[in-house]
Amino acid sequence: MKRTLLEASVGKVTITANGLESNLLLLFSVITTNNDDDFEKQYSKIRTLGVLINEVKNLNVFDDNSMSILIEAKVQRNSFTHALSDKYVASISDSGSMFQLIQEFIAIEQTIDKADRLVVKKLHSLATEGGVDVRDIKKQAKLAVNNWENA
Q1: How far apart are CA 84 and CA 6, in angstroms?
Q2: How far apart are CA 125 and CA 113, in angstroms?
Q3: Among residues 1, 18, 31, 91, which one has the fewest Cβ atoms lying within 10 Å of its Cβ?
Q4: CA separation, residue 23 to residues 36, 82, 121, 147 (Å)
Q5: CA 81/CA 5 separation, integer angstroms
Q6: Where are the beta strands (DSSP E) in the chain?
């Protein structure tokens, strides 16, 4: 049971970090392109989280406080990624450290999620300013998810 909780916490951090990267890439691509072809080229470029945060920082779309949250998310995600295997292996044999590691991973996921919510809020604002009804996008996304087997 404890190992399952540990594995779930690892997965949650990973998925949340991927969401942040995707939303930062979307934000950068929306702001820096003027047409669909340029958007596709920009969006298809592979970038690390650190590079994406620096690119968004250079656009001056976030205040200093928001940028510090994004940077902290990057630092914690990097720490998680680069130290994961050592901590994970050590925790398997010690239930006390496993519980502590689960708590650490939950805190990391919460920090990354906070940063992601900033980016999503900015995307929502840009969409609304551009005349896009975000409810229509959510409706289409829900339909796509519900009908994925028929696609």
Answers
A1: 11
A2: 18
A3: 1
A4: 17, 22, 10, 23
A5: 18
A6: none
Among 114, 41, 44, which residue's Cα sits nearest to residue 77?
114
| Residues 6+ positions from 109 with CB-CB distance below 8 Å | 9, 12, 13, 16
Indicate the angle between helix axes 95-129 and 64-92, nearest 10 degrees.
150
Report the C-alpha gap between 41 and 27 in whole angstroms. Answer: 14
Q: For residue range 6-45, what is the model confidence (pLDDT) as tens digits?
A: 788 889 999 999 999 999 999 999 899 888 888 888 888 8
- The structure's pTM equals 0.81
The DSSP code sequence of 88-120 is: HHHHHT-HHHHHHHHHHHHHHHHHHHHHHHHHH
